[in-house]
Structure prediction request, 244 residues.
Amino acid sequence: MKIKFLGIGSAWNINEDNTSAYIKKDAKMILIDCGESIARKIIKDDLLSDIKELYILISHTHSDHIGSLGTLLFYSKYNKKILNRIVLPKDEEFISNLKEYLRLVDITTEVEYVNEDFFKKELDLISFDILKANHVKNLPCYCFVLEDEESLIYYSADNNNIDYIKKYIKYPNAQIYTEICNNPKLQDEHLLLQKLEEATDILERKKIFLMHINEVLSINELKNKGFNIPIIEKKEGKKLWKKK
Ligand SMILES: [Zn+2]
Ligand SMILES: [Zn+2]
Prediction:
């Protein structure tokens, strides 16, 4: 399973797009989160041309994770004739928040809702888990673990639960994608870099990719500590819209 990133930024790090990633398997694509800058990037880079089914995982309803989902669903269905499916956790509050959000942006028949088991089967995964994240009090938040023969991907979304990292890093083929922050005042909501440094050695850090990076963190410094930063490819498909 190859995961590619659309952005690695935190909410208002305008030097980077919002943190979001995708995985393509034949004509199916998994998209993890869809913050404000993401739909435009997907359209601009023409990422959906070879796709028939789009599976969307939403970690939580902060707008840097869901803010352009309405536009993406309209574009995907009406411009690309794609079947859109959102994978839902078993959580009434989350489901009602998400559906309320989509109702307000006029999404009705553009999307189907599926559960974890359906998704796991359709995408031919060995395992798939939606795990409760530690983020803010007002919103239910989740992170994702996807496993196929090739790799196990842990994707933290916004989440300060370091226990998940300690657990999944032990898997030989693990790829750990975690958010970080460097502001101790935000450590109840986000994973403090210092904590991650204390909990990991240099060898383990080879498996760790940092994301949701704010505007004051230095990517070079993070790399010097032995962590990886996801590489963002310029664009995959042809550019759709030519400037006149
Ligand atoms: Zn958030
Ligand atoms: Zn966020």
In short: DSSP finds nine helices and eleven strands in the chain.
